[in-house]
Here is the input.
Amino acid sequence: MWLIAARPWALPASTMPVIFGTSLAVVVGGTRLDVLLFAGALAAMMILHSAANMLSDAFDFRHGLDTQVTPVSGAIVRGWLTDRQVLYGAVVLFAAGIILGMGLAWLTGRILLIIGAAGVLIGGGYTLLKAHALGDSAVFLNFGILGGIGAWVVQTKSFSWLPIIWTVPIAMLVSGILHANNWRDIATDSGCRVRTFAAVLGDRGSFRYFGFLLFGSQVLVLVFVGLPLRNFGWPPLPWPCLITLAALPEALKLWGRAKRRHRPAAPLDFVILDGAMARYNLHFGLLYVAGLWIAYALRFLRGQ
Here is the structure.
């Protein structure tokens, strides 16, 4: 019942770093894929992301930030659940995610326990962080960086900076989803004394920041492919990851929707920009992961 309050359209945003980190552990880290551990990591991330979303929805509703139904509204505004029910569900899901995470840490080591504890703290405090212009940073870390490194640790049982760095493009797009939401809601959020990062930047600054997140992720992939960090003993990002450029036309369409925000081609173009950004994140992430596995297949065919 509670998962209908968790904005299912946004859940792939948090699962993609787990899929990427797991793929990275196999393709670059050379470990053997443990399907059960992967499934556990994926489930834990989805549960904790759902809990954080539900907590945020209840907070927004109680503070008058989310009162009108849109195509991407949660269950409270639609009248499917009460804010009390959603808060209760968030607590239950947080507990379930913590238990599952502790089980994974018991199987893989203390490093995951530290990563998981950081994730729970950020997720539990997300509503306060969002109200003080730190929501983008929280999402960048929790549903981007920590998801990638956590998945790597689950598979390899060791720590590396590599998955942290190479997950940044995905983390940027996850932040872009939240930013699109907060950018749309600048007027209502400010009126309710909630100061998001979008409100700090203002409309023009938010437009530029949106472009930085949208296209910066593509630029980073180019940099990672062409600039191996040999001083750290790391290889370059496999060149097939350049397949993410296939998502560039979709990015340009999103950029166009953002530019026409005051005179949209369709009435809901800007209103549902966050949902469109979530789809782009999914497409970009799938291509990014596909690039890793293409490199793996090519290496296999060469007998390496």
In short: DSSP finds 13 helices and no strands in the chain.
